[in-house]
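Q: Give me the 3D complex with adenosine-5'-triphosphate.
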Amino acid sequence: MFKAFLIKYAEIGVKGKNRDLFEAALAQQIKYALRRCEGEFRIRRTRGRIYIDVLSDYDYEETVENLKTVCGVSGICPMVELEDEGFDRLCEAAVSYLQGQYPSGEFSFKVNARRARKNYPKTSMEINADMGERILDAFPRARVDVHRPEVMLSVEIREKIYLYSIEIPGPGGMPVGTNGKAMLLLSGGIDSPVAGYMVAKRGVKIDAVYFHAPPYTSERAKQKVVDLARLVARYSGPIYLHVINFTDIQLAIYEKCPHDELTIIMRRYMMRIAEEIAKNTECLGLITGESIGQVASQTMQSLAVTNEVCTLPVFRPCIGLDKQEIVEISEKIGTYETSIQPYEDCCTIFVAKHPVTKPSLSVIKRHEEALADCMDELMKKALETDELIVVEA
Ligand code: ATP
Ligand code: MG
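A: Here is the predicted complex, encoded as structure tokens.
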């Protein structure tokens, strides 16, 4: 029944030349989302609006589900497409559309006509008034409310005529590709995929790095990270996932540093390597799933010590969220079920029973000196293991 969609986006800050870049990026991401859907579609950009025409049979639910992953989309309006067969026929179609959508017949409404084709025999105001009357005739329990209608029936007069009244919320934010690129430290947990999604939603393209420690972490743990990247890629577009073999670094830390500081020192090396890859791939920042106080390595002191090795900005979009709030987002974006599969990532293997919660930077730095003679070489070797996996949704 719906042969077209109007795509709405938040217009703040998208004026002039920016609007064009913004719309082009949005159209690109819509195209990427529609590639996952059965059917043939055409994207049209006209006068500050984006439309999708459906050119073949298609699956409505699937299409809407995929459009809901496009960052920058604030609303998705499925539209009925009609040939212009005169105003009477248009009103009949509007009434039958409303009957289908609001079978109780009890609603307040407003008709909101727009003419892109000025040779239509009625003005917008006339369409609003005359169609309003016809609707009132057909629905005795309906009433007009021009200020806060329950049903806003939009009528667009173009070559063809479009009716719509439903707006399905999109994720909001900005289209990926309008705000540079950042490197996500992606583990198999709940938080980092959410962090990646939240930054992508601000228009940032995402690359990712996963630290793998075979044989302590299994192939299945790595596969889980690839699966998570694929789920995030629904929102962010294709992700270049770097898999780094971290085993030798981890063993060296295990051998030479105090065990209660393992996690924090390991996190510092992860950040160092991630930053190296980020700089080589034009990423402008790092992203982690850290949240203040969630675990010993995420206290304010630990975060300060971890952060100290980075020169790029580190974005931590989950920083102020409770676990439950992060879980809710992960459920909404569809990563939760995968995140809770029980395959250990390398953070969880080498953890001390009582990790430091208030590490001192000077103490940590002193203990890292035990690694001075081997670490340059180990870091270089780890970077050489970089396995690049291009992950697409
Ligand atoms: P997550 O649910 O994202 O795994 P977490 O609560 O388990 O987070 P940690 O394991 O302490 O927290 O990790 C903190 C952050 O460090 C993660 O959110 C992620 O960004 C990064 N990280 C941890 N382990 C890895 C890994 N093996 N590879 C890449 N990044 C990692
Ligand atoms: Mg983790």
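A quick observation: Residues 185-187, 189-192, 209-211, 270, 288-290, 294-295, 297, 345-347 surround adenosine-5'-triphosphate (ligand 1) (CB under 6 Å).
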